Every structure is written in structure tokens, then in C-alpha cells.
Amino acid sequence: MSSRQLGGLVLPGLRAGDTPATTIPATSVSGLSAYHKVHFGIDEYGRPLQVELASRSLLAGGLSRSGKSGFISNGVGHMSQCTDARIILIDGKIVELILWKETADFFVGPDPVLANHVLFTLQEEMNRRYEWLTHRRRRKVVKGDGMDLITVWIDELSVFTTVYGTRDTQERFLSLLMDLVQRGPAAGIVVVAATQRPSAEIVPTRVRDVFSYRVAFRCSTQASSDIILGTGWADLGYDASKIPTNRPGVGYCLAEEGRPFRFRSVYLEDDEIDTLVARSLSIRGPQLAGAA
Length: 292
Ligand SMILES: Nc1ncnc2c1ncn2[C@@H]1O[C@H](COP(=O)(O)OP(=O)(O)O)[C@@H](O)[C@H]1O
Ligand SMILES: [Mg+2]
Known about the structure:
Helix content is 30%, strand content 18%.
């Protein structure tokens, strides 16, 4: 399917007029659910770093080759084994997430118009889900509602906010992104985005601030580390510019509350990704993958 044939795009999940059953538990052949916590690595004490993605969006930042794409792959890997997950990949570099393409409902490369179209479609789906919730006097989608968790993985965010497209497409991308990050989690739509420098030009503060989870991989300066985690953490010792160069995948993770903690991300080699993709295809079947 060509990227331009997306007019008839129907994202899985709720469609207009659908009445999803309220109590269908998702069958998860692998034993994993998209609504389960996602294992991303281990902390300094060897405890697992497990993130509840179902209710929050995550922003990761760090220098080139600091481990951002590897981190994203771990999350996509989890979702690829779940029959109640939908995977949307938006990859400014194409090569980073391409190995997962067959598991995705959409794969968007550095094509700002297509990226905006996919985000807009997600926004419509989110609005339908909000209507569904409102009718039932509910405030959020939970596992067991029979609705897939839609996970949106954006690598090299800056490509869509500053590098490609016009000022208009970039602004549109940012406002769609902000709406999805803010209102998406309650509707079972979560965004995980990664960028080299989440400075104000690349990710305006108003957008950056709505991501509840922050992950800082190695940064060039204390100021960049603070941009990702929040002002003041570097002075307290949570400074990602102190992570050595030879430690890709080591970073600081901060949830909304609490303080950052240092962790090391799991790293999936290409052949391991191939195994997971093959397994995903056998569990979930091939997904509709639009490619830029
Ligand atoms: N958790 C990790 N453990 C070990 N090596 C890693 C880890 N994460 C990344 N690497 C190594 O670092 C390289 C760059 O990682 P990558 O995730 O592509 O960085 P980025 O997306 O930040 O540019 C990878 O090709 C891999 O060799
Ligand atoms: Mg990368």
C-alpha cells in the first residue's frame, strides 16, 4: 500500500458506531498484555525497571548513540507480543525502527504530511473513545474494556518538529502531539518519543511538560540533562552528562512523582528482534503496515 492511499485508513480499535463489549479480556497468547508494565531494564540495585505505559506517555532524550532507539525497541518488543496492542511507528530516520515494521499498524518514515495524517487519525480515535467513556460515565479505558492499547513510538522527534516540512506542518505536528500526549492515556493511547536534544526549539516547553515519564540518556551538558528531567535535578546529582560515553543504554528515569533513578536499558540485538517479529506474526498475524 502506498503512503498516499491512506484516505481510507481505519485504525484498529473503536470505529464510529461500534459498541465494544465491556468485559472481554484480551487473549494474550504470550501471557503479556499491553496493559501490563513494560520491562525496560534494571536499576543500580538490579531491580527491574518496569514502566506502566498504559497510563502515561514518555519522553526520552540524549546524545546520538546514547541508547534511545534501543530503549524504544524494548517497548515495541513488549507490545509486539500482545494481542491487545496496536503499534504505530513514526521514525524520522527510518532505519531505527524498521525491523519492527511488520508488527506495526503504521510505519511512517521522515514524511511530515503522512505523520500528521496518522496523528490526526489517532486524535479522531481518541475523541471516539472519549465519547464512549462519557456515555458510560467513565474516566479512563482499562484492561478488560475490550479496547486495544494504541502505542505510538516516535523516534527522532526533531525531524518532524524542526527539520522536515514547513512551519505549518511542524506546528500541526506539535499541536496534535501535545493533544495525544495529554488526553491520550485516559483513552488508551500512549506516546513514547525520543529526541537528541529536547531544547525549546525542538520540543517547546509546553509540549515537553505534558510527558509524565522522562528518560535522560547521556547528554552533552548538565543543562541538557535538566531540560529532559526538569530543572534542578543535575545539582542534586542526577546528571546525565556524567554518564560515560562507553555506557550506551545507561540513563536516568523519572516518573511524575519521586526522584530520578539510574538504570541500564535492555538491548535487543537484530537477530533477537527478528525472533520477536516472527513470534509476533504467529501470535497476532501481519498488521497493516503503511510505509513512507
Ligand atoms: N542498553 C544497551 N546495552 C548495550 N549496548 C547498547 C545499549 N543501548 C544501545 N547500545 C549500543 O549503542 C548503540 C547506539 O544505541 P542507539 O539506541 O541506537 O542510540 P541512539 O538512538 O541514542 O542514537 C547501539 O547500536 C548498541 O550497540
Ligand atoms: Mg536513535
